[in-house]
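hi support,

uploading two proteins for the ticket. first:
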Amino acid sequence: MPIPLSQRPTHPPHKNRSDRKNLRDMLPYIWDYRGRVLLALLTLVLSKLTSVSVPIVLKHIVDELERNQDILPILPIALLAGYGVLRLATALFNELRDIIFAKVRYRAMRKLSNQVMTHLHALSLRFHLERQTGAITRDLERGTRSVSSILNYMIFNIIPTFAEFSLIVLFLYLQYNVQFVLVTIATVVIYVTFTFAVTEWRMEYRHQMNAFESQANSQAIDSLVNYETVKYFGNEQFEAKRYNHTLSQWEDCAIKSQTSMSALNFGQSSIIAIGVTIIMVLASQGVVNGSMSLGDLVLVNTFLLQLFIPLNFLGVVYRAIKYALADMDLMFKLLENKPEIQDTATAKPLIVTQGHVRFEQVNFHYQPERSILFNIDFTIPAGHKVAIVGPSGAGKSTLARLLFRFYDITGGSIQIDQQDIRNVSQASLRAAIGIVPQDTVLFNDSIYYNLAYANPTATRTDVIAAAQLANIHDFIESLPKGYDTTVGERGLKLSGGEKQRVAIARAVLKQPKILIFDEATSSLDSKSEQLIQTALAKVAMNHTTLVIAHRLSTIIDADQILVMEQGKIIERGTHAELLNINGIYTHLWTLQQQEERKMATCM
């Protein structure tokens, strides 16, 4: 019996990178501000020096009080003033450290976020067809936030605690019995070793939590984006069960994580309690035998409080850093993905003089075991219109993707004005080609933004002129907000014909030499199709045009028509020539004419 989709096991968590590698990869993002980092560290040291000085001043105040009954005349006012100044200086240096380091932290977040976004856009189409948008956005969000967390913990917790520990140990060694130093060091070493060991053991739960959280987030976004499909099939409960199943796995890992954390916290508290007790016993013995004053007891106790309170928090910080490194892990793994399609070292800009396109014995497969195109050979002379027709799965749209170089061909060559597109830069290649796709997806922004997206530097006059050529200007002007109308997510507030005309206007605004119409009217009604066809005819004038068509009536004026089947060109010629052949094209033409007559009769 097959396992229901909602109950299928998830993939095991990915193999994680080393924490050292993640930290090393993070360093370049703060290197530009190393001067600020050093200045922040200087203020940190000054802060700890004043912080350690406070208990020393307090010791002298207590000793003075112990020796003198008549306090006010004898107690040096300077000690009290110094105590207040040192506390104020500690706070001042801490705030200065925060101010100085703020730019380093937030600039690192900005640079990393921008690099990941740029890298994602640089990755090839194959990656984006296989990715899960929800999981990637979650990984990006957690990863950039983790950079801030690690920098924050390192500068504001780990280094300050280590500096304070070093200063306190040095003072205890110089002023008191070496036993105080040994007990303090032993307690800290045992505490840190225990914390590291237990945290490493329980980190697998965090990695699993991240994996299930990303999976749940991806499922939620995917089901919401496909809201209509869910409704069409009545699968609300199915989606809820699938989402709940993933959350159930996340819940199990979260409970194990919390339980093990409680055990860790108790162990840390026990180590600190034992260490503090031993230190206080030694100090009390010193007071009793006269080797230490009451002020010394207060000093040692205050030192321990200053040291072990942040040390206790250090356990939390270490866990937080480990969590942040786990969060950072997936983001850096994204950056390790190499673009499948890359410019060669000698790639030059494409120079388009005429727009002559040549497919020469092109072969292609997505997977080696399944070939898609076989020996595709045709030419589109400059200014001519070539149409490609055939059944679904014949490989028609693949030709458009290959011309844009979203994939590299596995045999033959594709040339524009006798330049192999593999030897030119991708940016210049795609700048020379405009496309009106079958399914136009728009940004959730204004109509004007979506129109101008083809050429962000275009003037408003240019945008309006493109809209007029695409026969959509009057429609836009009829809307209450005109060009400022928001189109909704993926352009869902516009009809199919309206979105297609936006796509045509964008192609006009881009001003390419080569145009691709990828089944631009296949899903439209007759009225919309006529409007689109009129607009396409205007746009295609004096352009080299490749038309991938479903409705044969839209391409009867093509200079050449190629008929594809199972990845091969089986017929070619003009509309009249193909009808005379009485082959596949004639069969398709006859079927479509019969369908159109039936629809006309029904109307």
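and the second one:
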Amino acid sequence: MSVFANTEVSRRGFVSAAGAAGVLAACGYAGKSVFAAESSKADAGAAASYADSADVVVCGAGGAGLNAAYRALELGASVIVLEKSDFTGGTLQYSEGAFQAAGTDDEFALDDGTNPATPNDSVDLMCQNWLAMADGDCDEELIRTIVAKSPEALDWIKKSFGLGVSRTAGNRPVPFVPAETVADRIHYLVDPDDVESTDGHGGKPWMDNAAKAVKDAGGKIVFGAEVVEFVTDGSGRVCGVRTLDGTTYEAKKGVICCTGGIDHNEVMAKHVNPYHYWQMKHGSINSVAANTGEGILAGMALGAQCAFHGTDNNPAYFWIGTNKHMMNLIAVGPRGYRFAREDTTYGFWSRCLYYQIRQEGGVDGTVWIIFGDDLFDDDTSLQDEDQIKQWQDDGTLVTGKDVAELAEKTGLPEQALQQTMDEWAEACKTGVDLRFGRDSAMDGIEAPYWAMKLIMGSTGAFGGMVINKNCEVVDYAGDPIPGLYAAGNCSAGWLGDFYYGSGTCLMACASLGMIAAESIMNGAASADDVSDARGRSDGEAAASSAADSASAADVSSVADGTYQGEAKGMESTIKVTVTVKGGKIVDMTAEGQETEGIGSKALDELPGEIVAAGTTEGVDGVAGASVTSKAIFDAVAAALKA
């Protein structure tokens, strides 16, 4: 059972018709509940009260919204952008401007040559990296679509909004992620005319220039427009948006929801995202206050399938380590022991921290960072004397001449803390971390010891409306809700329960924004392009969908013998050999060159399950490898038909 998702979500949906009004109202929803099954009863006469009309209405003027709006304008659409606050750019306005992309041809003209992208990196390697980090909690096809779009998206935003790249960096390793997939693919966006002041603050020039480009291209931006309802016509198609003040806007081609996550909606977080709720109660939320989930709630009122995972967490006071520099420190949980390799990517480390605190210290448990005097020279956040005094006065920062004194001041068990310090000293001496495999910043920690109570910060919650590869929002039956698209942090299916590293959301804002605009202009709406990724609340959903959509394989009337068949997988042609005896499959092999640890799991696991069942009927695919699973089922069907 996961603490990252609402475990009560069923295959029929998060809110049933009977309890929808109460749940949505409790979460702050102010519109009308019209579920997909009842959407044909929606008020088709709403057109008479439209205050304004456009081909595309974009909800939210943050990163995804502005990118979607400008791309739609480029493609010839008229566009209205509805923004709840009184400024554009959302949280991305305050971002460092990191952007993940692989396989680019960018020469990084602004780079001094010491920080280039990894040679021979590729979209496929980046896909493998993200899919491994997603740990099964995503839609593989959607991930591959987004990542494949990333080089084009990076080039597009640079040309469209006058940006450049100053430098690159890479993520740190994660224990279960193949090392060969880690690369320097994080690009830092800057204003080429003002590199010095915009390096590390690239989100602002991006958003400022994007807002100007939208206006210059004829797009309208309406401020103070809080979305509360997606209006549908008599056929159930989303054809407009109603705001809190009762104003209704017509969307002739459809609506793109980019309203951000449930970052500041405490009631909703408690319902669907306990990890983020814990963060709200015990840390800081560093996203704009407008992110309270109205767009997600409006989608839920139409029966949108939703998935919620975790939160983009990292230490609030100082970095444990940056992308290329690890601090000489260790982190210990409430019982005095280390709980993860500290030099991993901050998203994974933070997930480990959350689990450890809840396991060892309960909701109010504390993690401490332990270090020596040398860190004061290495970390700029420890070089402000007034701040240091404040931390010491309130107990956030303590020091001890030995382990016994440090244990007394932190409240950590002395025996466990001493064992931890001795183990770490031995690891630094031998260069081998037997417990977690850490391999950097192993210089040893000398007394006097320092310990800082770790307070976590978050730039937003993960999860929202599940989308397919066209950015169409899908319902719990797996069908697109006509006319409704989503992009950015109000969408789901592309993130697992920890963050893939710096630049993940910025890349997703650009890629998804572009895809949504292109799809809505192309009229892309196909029941065959369904994403079914509800997160850990229903982890087998996508795999089950793969089995349901595969070719039928009736073995009951097949003569005894051995048969061969093949079908196209994600990376290769899947070839199966099936032996039938007495109307049942008694032996089977499957071969192919699929992504290691992802698609390969289906090749390893499904043949045994099919043989155990004697048929493919009733056998679900492997979660996280839905495309490969479907190919195996199709190949079996082809073999039996032969």
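thanks. also noticed: The longest strand covers residues 456-466.
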